[in-house]
Amino acid sequence: MTDVSGTDIASTLQKLGELLQRGANEEAAQSATMARRQFPVSAELIRLHGVALLRLGRRREAQVALNRAAELAPDNVELQCNLASLAMADGRTGAAIERLQKALTRTPGHPALLQALGTAYMSTGQHAQGRDAFAQALKSMPQHPAIRLNLAGAEMELGRLAEAETLVRQVLQQAPDADVAHAMLGHLLHMQRRPKDAAASLLRAGKLAQGNVQYVFQAALMLDEAEDLAGAHDAFADALARAPGSVPITGQLLFARRRLYRWKDIDALSQRVIRAVSEGETGIHPFAFLCEDTDAALQLRCAKTYAALIEGQVSAFRQQLNLRHTVPLPDAPIRVGLLAEGFHETAVSHHLAGLIEALGDSDLDVHLFATTPDDGSAIRRRLAAAATLHDASALNRAQVASLIHGAGIEVLFDLNGYRSHGNAELMSLRAAPVQVGWLGYTGSSGAPWMDYLLTDKIVLPHELREHVSEKVIRLSRCQQPNDPDRIQAQPPSRAACGLPETGVVFACLQETQAINPAMFARCMLILQQVPGSVLWLLAGPADADERLRRAASALDIAPERIVFMPRMPYADYLARYAHVDLYLDTLPVNSRATASDALRAGCPVLTRTGETMASRTVTSLLHHLGLPELIMGDNTSFIGMATELGNHPEALVALRRHLQQQRSTNPLFDIKGFAADFRRVVRTVSARYRIGRPPTDVDV
Q1: pTM of the shown model
Q2: How far apart are CA 471 and CA 455, in angstroms?
Q3: By the number of CB atoms within 10 A of the CB, which of 105, 137, 270, 566 ranks highest?
Q4: Which listed CATH number (3.40.1010.10, 3.40.50.300, 3.40.50.11380, 3.30.365.10) goes with 323-483+674-699?
Q5: What's the rounded Cα separation, in Å, for the pair 47 and 20?
Q6: Domain boundaries, the chain
Q7: Fold adopted by 495-667
């Protein structure tokens, strides 16, 4: 143990400071105890003792020491900052703010006190006050980069992104190798919807701070968002090399490989992810986890673990935001909100438009909250004409929540769930008193802030009920709205589509992650047994298409028998089903919207029922169409039925004729009937809320 009990208090304090700087906290605490016998009224000695005790987790003793030091030196700025930090760590942020404000009356304008006060304000969501405190501190120390970055952070929270970017770039002029500044610039650019530029800034930060894997991981997520999936994959791989045990990075790398058809070693990655979820480790995204071959119980566990992580991050802020809900009068109209990023040229908009228009004749006051900008499309204009559409694309989560709350929304439907960018963090702020999950994520959210899940009796049979944390609303009809008036362009020729002039066309126009090695192998077996047939797939990212052609060759299928459809406007895509003879569904995640599109266009769909909600959505579509013969129970029967139909074109013609007849008569395409059921759902959950009853299971 270092001897610091000499007669010189200055050398004693210096040695204690060196011990603390080295992280020798136990030795520092013991040395301070001895020194205090000789110097019992040295405020700085007692303060350093308190710091050492605090680092050792001996919080009560640290509090006593720091309080004693404050009695001896009430004007000591470092001491007041230490006590404020301790109060904040104990959840007493109000006491911390009060202490710092009093200290500022004794030492006006002190930058350390203002910095600490700004941090305290920011932690309580008082961003304007935090900005003012940081701005005052910066006047006293204009060259201090940390204060400037804190001020930039406050401006970000206030939505003043241009001002924040100016501050961060000023720091980078002073300190071009400041990794924290590059990272903050990355997040700022991301908030400005510039994910590619944001990723570049974060990758720069990652090069400057090799030990900070989060910079590279965040860059990878932004590259993914920018649709540079190959770049994202490489960044995920880099991040995993830096942190081989990271569960979140492993999960994202696996999801990227599935979408790129990079199937080498994919089973090992999948096993690691499934094991992590089984053991309750955090960080696996529930939407990506749907692609793994697991059961409903494990999917719920994944969702609950993910939701618990979000809850831990936002619970304090939710309390500070304090969005209180006033119960409407019994005869007040019901304000319904639908929250989605898809209120533009996307499949979800085309499926929903007829429903929103049909609800215009009801007593519901419908509001749409779009988290993506107006793309100028006809479908966006159609939706805006049918309901009150709020463009929330430029707002942060707290601002969107306040917008929804300010609109007086009583029942809020989240149409994203964990899909795509997801709305979980936003929904966790409790913008509405009744919150319902629907459509976007086919499974339970596992989240305490979600009251209901809207589904149907086929997607969620009684045996799967225990794997849903929400109360469930089960429709007797299919839970997916199917607008019969979706606009379809004139079909181009087969040659224009890249299809051969003759031969059966099988199709699977799912996103690439749904086509796993097992599904692809089944399709290749079908092609082998149906001479002259081809498989039509959606074009993938980067070199994914070429990888799949090589995989076909490895299974003795000529690569030209795999045809790829580029991305195109919805009406043009829908028209191409005129050339599809049989749509082949996927497992463990069914096709949902694309299967519905195929059926709407008169194209039969073959599915295999699974044991999770995500693997039963097409079963629901076919059940309600009265086509149980197209619902298979295992892989062998799936391959057999596809082969049988492919070799008997007359059967496919009969199925297409049946579907065309059903389009005008089947309840699956009765959008007004769906609107009536939807209205009953809303009125039921609203009535329970208004009379003070908790959510309960409802069958409609």
Answers
A1: 0.88
A2: 11
A3: 137
A4: 3.40.50.11380
A5: 12
A6: 323-483+674-699, 495-667
A7: Rossmann fold (3.40.50)
